[in-house]
Amino acid sequence: MDEQPRLMHSHAGVGMAGHPGLPQHMQEGGGATDADGRKQDIGDILQQIMTITDQSLDEAQARKHALNCHRMKPALFNVLCEIKEKTVLSIRGAQEEEPPDPQLMRLDNMLLAEGVSGPEKGGGSAAAAAAAAASGGAGADNSAEHSDYRAKLSQIRQIYHTELEKYEQACNEFTTHVMNLLREQSRTRPISPKEIERMVSIIHRKFSSIQMQLKQSTCEAVMILRSRFLDARRKRRNFNKQATEILNEYFYSHLSNPYPSEEAKEELAKKCAITVAQVSNWFGNKRIRYKKNIGKFQEEANMYAARTAVNAANASSHGSQANSPSTPNSAGSAGSFNMSNSGDLFMSVQSLNGDSYQGAQVGANVQSQVDTLRHVISQTGGYSEGLTANQMYSPQGINANGGWQDAPTPSSVTSPTEGPGSVHSDTSN
DNA sequence: CCTGATGATTCGTT
DNA sequence: AACGAATCATCAGG
């Protein structure tokens, strides 16, 4: 118990005024507004601290003891209590009961959502999965990245929790320490339980602000991790061949109006194992790039058109089919196009081409069929390159302004899954 | 490493 | 809200 006074000295700055062992300057607090004067004060204090010796400490101890044993002590103590009561009352109310910090709540919510502060393993993986879905990943092929992401996330989580624990422990230690000090001091000066309570709350507030910093930096770390691992733009992956083919089939078989409905997009997304947004992106890119340089896409267009036409022809020749030209999954994607087939088709189609289907109220399937067949025709017709074919398509799909014509397309038109009662390819037969 | 292809994003327009 | 156009950022082949 010899070092008790030393401790009291070192913690005097926390806010315990009026300690008898302190030099006069320290008890005056911030009374002097003059900066120079304050500097002078600090200088004096430092000087006095430097000159503190064991001897002077002993002296102080002795003086304290003498004070405690003074006959007037109980009376003085009571007076002090009264004064204290009044001042404390006036201090209180000014800074008390602050509402829960909205920023802290935001941070808490985010950490919970990211699975950092939630229940052990489930939250983390759920959040990762949700993030993966949001980023539009194609599931299996980037699962490795996700496991990496999860690993990093749990690392952050672990650091966060150990740090939090450390802070809490330190907070508790410091609180008990301060309470012990106050209890010790309550023998020489009046300290109400309320005051102790207030002191504790001040300490807790201080520590909670440190905690908030911890939470904030954790959030930042998670955000960086997310952007690093899940930002699809940074980690762009080309769609697989099958998906591209499915999309191209649809695009070229609906060349007159390559704007898939919401349902069609969903269908395509499901088939290609990508998101609807990615389908929209793809069609947006495709339309603009096709329009910009039709010549470049000629070959591709012919290929897909012919393939689709063959599928349609095969389907219609078999009579019973609820198949759509845009989804030739089984027949189209695997095998290569058989040119000898297209000859038959060409013959059967030519008459159709001659009719003026252009603005008519044709069913969507018919329309797409026409698109497809025109490609076949133009291909078999033997144009050289680019512009010739360009002119062939131009009146069909793209209007004078360079945009696609405003063809009325009911939902069943663009949707690849149509009802069984549709006219479909019977017309081409 | 360079270059074209390609998926995603941004911004203005309708 | 959907689209077009421009642009960015990455991939992939030479």
TrEMBL record:
GO terms for biological process: cell differentiation. PROSITE patterns: HOMEOBOX_1, HOMEOBOX_2, PBC. CDD domains: homeodomain. Pfam families: Homeobox_KN, PBC. One of its GO terms (cellular component) is transcription regulator complex. Residues 230-293 form the Homeobox domain. SMART domains: HOX (SM00389). Residues 37-231 form the PBC domain. Residues 232-294 bind DNA. One of its GO terms (molecular function) is DNA-binding transcription factor activity, RNA polymerase II-specific. Keywords: Activator, Developmental protein, Differentiation, DNA-binding, Homeobox, Nucleus, Transcription, Transcription regulation. Residues 1-35, 315-336, 388-429 are annotated as: Disordered. It is found in: Nucleus. Residues 316-336, 388-399, 408-417 have a biased composition (Polar residues). Belongs to the TALE/PBX homeobox family. This is Pre-B-cell leukemia transcription factor 1. It comes from Salarias fasciatus.
